[in-house]
């Protein structure tokens, strides 16, 4: 697979910014861990996009999703709890549960025309703790490596791994994509590549089949490489 960089091209088809709205359930007690949210959002995005672009999808939802995919793959990650989480479930989209985290991925649309039950949910400021945790077996998982030299909130990093999971899915052959989706599109998110494999960031960027470069709208400078990704069966190390 050739390296893929979202955002920079192609341009918005009609000059109107569209985005995929992603809602993460974050209750006060207990709150999910940072890595759990990143893994869950990445898997949820892949599963939702497969669902929304399938032959079984509602025609309007499929058309909106394809319209969004034709331009920059912008994602907005929001958080919800309690009644706010419950209310937004009525909005068209795909809900999934991964480990300790619930995620809802809504049908894409213009950023200035977000459903009120989603639009009222908070964007930004989601920073969760990450307890010490050993590496997991990457077998069967896409491996997403977050840039260790760039500081990002949980919400920002979640959007970036969502981009990476989408690009991995788009580049997989149909049979491999089907097998990955059938197991829940599992991922491993790595925050410390040197500790995991003894590989520095620059080497990973040079050889990764998927490279995510941010548009620079929030938190990081335009063009910053935020995540690199490897499909199932092609983990570094």
Task: Give a concise summary.
The chain has 237 residues and is α+β, with helices and mostly antiparallel strands. The protein has eight helices and ten strands.
Q: In the CATH hierarchy, what is the architecture of the largest domain at level 2?
A: 3-Layer(aba) Sandwich
The average pLDDT value, as a whole number, equals 91
Top-tier CATH class of the largest domain: Alpha Beta
Considering DSSP H and I runs of 4 or more, what fraction of the residues is helical? 25-40%
Estimated share of beta-strand residues? 15-25%
Structure overview:
With 237 residues, the chain is α+β, with helices and mostly antiparallel strands. The protein has 2 domains: 18-123, Bit1, CATH 3.40.1490; 142-230, Bit1 (3-Layer(aba) Sandwich). The chain is built from 8 helices and 10 strands. The protein has helices at 34-52, 59-69, 82-88, 116-119, 154-171, 174-182, 193-197, 201-207; strands at residues 18-25, 75-80, 93-98, 101-106, 109-110, 122-123, 142-146, 187-190, 210-213, 225-230. The strands form 2 sheets. Strands 1, 2, 3, 4, 5 and 6 form a 6-stranded mixed sheet that branches. A 4-stranded mixed sheet has the order 8-7-10-9, covered by helices on one side. α1 (34-52) packs across α5 (154-171). The relative contact order is 0.21. The model has no long low-confidence stretch (mean pLDDT 91).
